[in-house]
């Protein structure tokens, strides 16, 4: 199993900056914006995007974390990953424009769960999606509004996003896997 | 070690035309002798018993095929009439023969109760109709319908041939009734066989009162309930003897060290009281309810204290198995050791199975609701041989506990003594063949299919036991033959 | 109060002393706390915490058990516990059916085994059972193809109660660490499945556990305590059994009262409830000898004026209502973990 790097740390940094500009552009400002990172790696990405927005707009939008463990439609993972990582939404969702942030967009099921979870907390005015990597193979009609990089992949490959906050370094790699499907989302 | 056996007329129930067992280990508890030998049965008679010596005896030891007298069961339940779903006299006899038994004395807790001769006739007729060579004896109830109020038709039952009286399933209810029963039965030359249990102390009880019951949250069955009843019975016997010197008392299935001690002291004082212990009280313990399956002697620490199944990692089965629910309950390893000690020093004169078959319906319920009883007549020999294998009991003593032991107890009851029922049970040339042949080098799997009893309620299901029974011959007729081939 | 108790020493010597995120759940049933390892108990605690989070949301529901069928089978009447389980199951979006045997065919003599087979044929995947005979859920576990969650069996076990008690206690001691903390349970220990399950969980937690009550209601427990002396059972420390209520409560961090039933008087185990209240009741005077921050607990329902004085039951120390809400969280956690184990589908199905 050889890992191939498809994004360097610098490329990630530039993508985050671009996404942060796109988000503000779409919103025509920062009013009503809230960023919600999907556990686990969506969270540090959301923090960085928020920091980037603060850098060029002078205003930092609120940042939250969303755990979708209890919204999954596949309980078979519970035995292997029973631990939940926590949901923290320190702002009022009602009427907010929530930008969901995740590292990889694949089949779209995670995002569907995330929308279910979000709506249980309140009624956002709009939900948008920003992802670092879009690897294709959608199984649901889900589309990202902001994409860091489009990467065509085959189903036998896994995309790993590494972030310094958790993995020590920033990079995105792709590897061919031997049939372990646990990373599908 | 290998024996050759030839059998003609291999049909169960028929007279054995010829059976030869060569180079086997013979055990004759009447002669007090064991060793290499050969037996020949011709036309139902034990024609010859030859003890081998010198070169002929070489290579034959007590770990292969063994020939012993047919085993004598003096406490079994064959459930007929009334509970034929659980067992019939026919299936009970088949099971007995599989266990190596050629005689079985059944208890009167049938429905209707065996408290008058008409019911005894039904049991006899059923035994006859079964065609089994296993001899069926019977006890009459002490009290009418075992209700503990009035005496049963004791005289008529004696004339009809019961070997004693018992309210087994329950204790003789009051000291007054026991005293009357001892006097009247003594007059008739028959014993009272009592199941010692103080019912007030055991109301609602589920398992032996002890560490295991405390942890498992089961209502305790105190040892005092057995000792209390035993002490009462012995005291009443002592009184009754003054008026009727032929009064006899036999205490069955004792399970606690304290009760056995009380009997030991009474016997030392010269009282005509005998007792017996069961294979399950010798080998299983209350730990098994928690899920342990180690033999009682394996659960005993070097200093004689009981092991702790939670500490020793002994839990291998699911807890609350209802096949373990029995009256008296399985006790601690120390009690089991006391049962063995009593057997070895003669306090307990015999091992009896208290064979108690039950239907799955009665057992496949919550532990506290399960009916008491273990189906044990087919596994008794295997359990005793396990004790022999573990060096806890010499082979000859084990055989004696199942033959001359119970016969000796019955010989103490004057009306029974001298009848065929109380015959000595040895390997006697010229007598009707009555023997069991089993192979200690071979084992057998206890399964619902291999058990011939309708009662599959034994915690030994799935386990293998030593000592596969090859032949059981009773009264000269073939009672059981091992179905597997190669008896050359 | 020394923290260096035998219980603490036993705990410290145990591997996995620090909570780990890598525990997998593999139990098909939850029948008692005795087979749970400490890391598994901590997993349940962490999962319950998340469930508590859900309970504080505007919408107290998640779809985790959507479409899964949960059946409660209560042979003993118990509205509170049954409703707690039902609430837990509904909060996870499960479909719940409740069978109270007083009105079912059980009164016509249907056996437990037949009842369970019927329930299974009707599609139940998780069976929550309460029964008055010790060991009944073990029989159920042999017969039922899905998961069995024991809601209390006879005198033997009440795992969800012990876990919610543990969860509640941890919220009130510094660091959530019960090692060396003195916990006293006062009442009818002999007949109490709550006490027995708490023995397993609290000794695993390293607490300094005291069981207290009149001698007639402590029968056999000292033998158990002696058997566990010196930390003989791996992962479990010793505990104390005494009828000296003053010694038991003094400097306690947690005081738990158990219900005394009227039947105990009638079966000759207690002279009267009044005498029990006078000699063993948890009243303000006794509680004042416990630590200033000590909490008072009760599994409910309470006999105020018997095992617990009314003013203590409603005092600031009492955490009885927290126990109730924690009960829902713990039960949600267990249902979630059970439902996710032995799932029929292959792991990692497409999402």
What's a concise summary of this model?
With 185 residues, chain A is of the alpha/beta class. Chain A has helices spanning 9-27, 42-57, 109-121, 164-167, and strands spanning 3-7, 33-38, 63-66, 97-105, 126-134, 146-150, 157-162, 171-176.
The CATH architecture term of the largest domain in chain B is Alpha-Beta Barrel
Oligomer: heterotrimer
Which sequence of strands runs across the widest sheet of chain C?
7-6-5-8-9
Largest interface: A-C, 34 and 35 residues
Strand content of chain C: 5-15%
By CATH's scheme, which homologous superfamily of the largest domain in chain B applies? Metal-dependent hydrolases
For the residues shown, what is the average pLDDT of chain B? 94
> Which whole number gives the mean pLDDT of chain C?
88
CATH top level class name of the largest domain in chain C = Alpha Beta
Low-confidence runs of at least 5 consecutive residues of chain B = none
Shape of chain B: globular
Helical fraction of chain B equals: 25-40%
Assign the CATH topology of the largest domain in chain C.
Rossmann fold
Shape of chain C: globular
What percentage of the residues of chain B does DSSP assign to strands (E)? 15-25%
Number of discrete domains of chain C: 2
Instruction: Give the helices and strands of chain C as they follow along the chain.
Output: HHEHEHEHEHEHEHEHEHHHEHH
CATH superfamily of the largest domain in chain C: Aspartate/ornithine carbamoyltransferase
């Amino acid at each position: 199993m050889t890992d191939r790097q498809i994004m360097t740390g610098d490329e990630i940094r530039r993508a985050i900056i671009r996404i942060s500009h796109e988000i503000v552009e779409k919103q025509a400002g920062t009013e009503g914006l809230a960023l919600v990172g999907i556990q686990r790696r969506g969270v540090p990405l959301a923090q960085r995007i928020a920091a980037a927005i603060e850098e060029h707009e002078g205003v930092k939008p609120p940042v939250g974390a969303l755990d979708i463990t209890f919204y999954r439609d596949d309980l078979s993972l519970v035995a292997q990953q029973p631990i939940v990582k926590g949901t923290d939404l320190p702002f009022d969702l009602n009427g907010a424009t929530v930008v969901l942030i995740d590292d990889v967009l694949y089949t779209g099921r995670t995002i569907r769960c995330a929308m279910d979870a979000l709506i249980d907390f309140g009624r956002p005015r709009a939900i948008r999606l920003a992802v670092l990597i879009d690897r294709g193979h959608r199984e649901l009609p889900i589309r990202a509004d902001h994409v860091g990089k489009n990467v065509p992949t085959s189903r036998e490959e896994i995309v790993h996003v590494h972030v310094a906050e958790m993995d020590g370094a920033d990079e995105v790699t792709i590897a061919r896997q031997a049939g372990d499907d646990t990373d599908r989302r | 070690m290998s024996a050759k056996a030839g059998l003609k007329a291999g049909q169960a129930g028929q007279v054995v035309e010829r059976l030869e067992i060569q180079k086997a280990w013979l055990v004759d508890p009447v002669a007090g002798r064991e060793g290499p030998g050969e037996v020949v049965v011709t036309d139902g008679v034990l024609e010859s018993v030859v003890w081998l010596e010198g070169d002929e005896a070489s290579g034959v030891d007590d770990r292969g095929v063994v020939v012993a007298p047919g085993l004598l069961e003096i406490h079994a339940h064959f459930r007929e009439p009334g509970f034929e779903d659980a067992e019939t006299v026919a299936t009970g006899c088949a099971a007995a023969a599989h266990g190596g038994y050629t005689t079985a004395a059944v208890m009167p807790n049938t429905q209707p109760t065996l408290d008058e001769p008409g019911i005894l006739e039904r049991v006899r007729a059923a035994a006859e109709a079964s065609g089994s060579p296993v001899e069926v004896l019977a006890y009459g109830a002490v009290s009418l319908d075992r209700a503990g109020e009035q005496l049963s038709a004791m005289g008529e039952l004696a004339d009809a041939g019961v070997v004693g009286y018992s309210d087994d399933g329950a204790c003789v209810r009051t000291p007054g009734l026991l005293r009357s029963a001892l006097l009247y039965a003594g007059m008739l030359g028959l014993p009272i066989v009592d199941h010692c249990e103080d019912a007030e102390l055991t109301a609602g009880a589920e398992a032996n009162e002890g560490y295991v019951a405390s942890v498992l949250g089961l209502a305790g069955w105190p040892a005092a309930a057995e000792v209390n009843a035993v002490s009462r019975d012995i005291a009443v016997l002592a009184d009754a003897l003054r008026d009727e010197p032929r009064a006899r008392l036999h205490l069955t299935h004792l399970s606690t060290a304290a009760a056995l001690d009380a009997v030991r002291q009474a016997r030392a004082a010269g009282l005509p009281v005998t007792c017996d212990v069961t294979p399950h009280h010798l080998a299983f313990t209350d730990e098994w309810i928690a899920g342990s399956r180690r033999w009682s002697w394996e659960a005993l620490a070097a200093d004689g204290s009981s092991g702790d199944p939670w500490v020793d990692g002994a839990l291998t089965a699911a807890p609350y198995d209802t096949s373990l629910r029995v009256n008296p309950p399985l006790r601690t390893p120390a009690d089991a050791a006391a049962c063995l000690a009593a057997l070895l020093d003669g306090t307990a004169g015999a091992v009896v199975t208290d064979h108690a078959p039950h239907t799955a319906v009665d057992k496949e319920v919550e532990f506290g609701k399960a009916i008491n009883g273990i189906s044990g007549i087919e596994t008794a020999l295997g359990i005793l041989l396990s004790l022999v294998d573990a060096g806890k009991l010499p082979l000859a003593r084990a055989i004696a506990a199942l033959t001359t032991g119970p016969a000796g107890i019955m010989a103490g009851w004057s009306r029974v003594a001298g009848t065929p029922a109380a015959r000595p049970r040895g390997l006697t040339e010229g007598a009707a063949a009555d023997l069991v042949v089993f192979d200690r080098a071979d084992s057998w799997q206890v399964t619902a299919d291999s058990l011939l009893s309708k009662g599959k309620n034994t915690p030994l299901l799935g386990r293998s036991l030593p000592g596969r029974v090859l032949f059981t011959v009773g009264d000269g007729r073939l009672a059981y033959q091992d179905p597997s081939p190669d008896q050359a | 109060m020394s923290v260096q108790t035998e219980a603490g020493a036993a705990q410290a010597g145990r591997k996995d002393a620090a909570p780990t995120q890598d525990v997998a759940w593999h139990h098909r049933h939850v029948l008692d706390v005795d087979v749970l390892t400490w890391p598994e108990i901590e997993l349940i605690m962490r999962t319950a915490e998340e469930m508590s989070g859900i309970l504080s949301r505007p919408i107290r529901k998640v779809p985790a058990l959507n479409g899964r069928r949960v059946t409660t089978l209560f042979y003993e009447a118990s509205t509170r516990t049954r409703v707690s389980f039902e609430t837990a199951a509904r909060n996870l979006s499960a479909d719940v059916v409740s069978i109270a045997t007083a009105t079912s065919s059980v009164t016509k003599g249907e056996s437990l085994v037949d009842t369970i087979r019927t329930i299974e044929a009707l599609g139940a995947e998780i069976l929550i059972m309460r029964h008055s005979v010790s060991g009944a859920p073990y029989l159920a576990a042999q017969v039922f193809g899905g998961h069995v969650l024991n809601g209390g069996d006879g005198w033997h076990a009440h795992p969800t109660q012990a876990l919610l008690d543990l969860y509640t206690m941890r919220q009130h001691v510094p660091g959530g660490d019960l090692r060396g903390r003195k916990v006293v349970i006062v009442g009818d220990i002999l007949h109490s499945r709550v006490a027995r399950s708490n023995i397993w969980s609290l000794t695993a937690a390293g607490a300094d556990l005291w069981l207290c009550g009149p001698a007639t209601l402590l029968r056999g427990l000292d033998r158990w305590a002696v058997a566990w002396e010196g930390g003989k059972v791996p992962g479990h420390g010793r505990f104390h059994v005494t009828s000296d209520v003053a010694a038991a409560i003094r400097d306690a961090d947690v005081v738990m009262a158990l219900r005394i039933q009227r039947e105990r008087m009638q079966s000759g185990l207690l002279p009267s409830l009044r005498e029990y209240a006078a000699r063993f009741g948890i009243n303000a005077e006794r509680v004042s000898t416990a630590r200033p921050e000590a909490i008072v607990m009760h599994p409910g329902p309470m006999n105020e004026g018997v095992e617990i004085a009314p003013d203590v039951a409603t005092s600031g120390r009492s955490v009885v209502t927290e126990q109730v809400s924690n009960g829902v969280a713990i039960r949600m956690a267990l249902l979630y973990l059970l439902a996710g184990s032995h799932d029929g589908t292959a792991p990692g199905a497409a999402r």
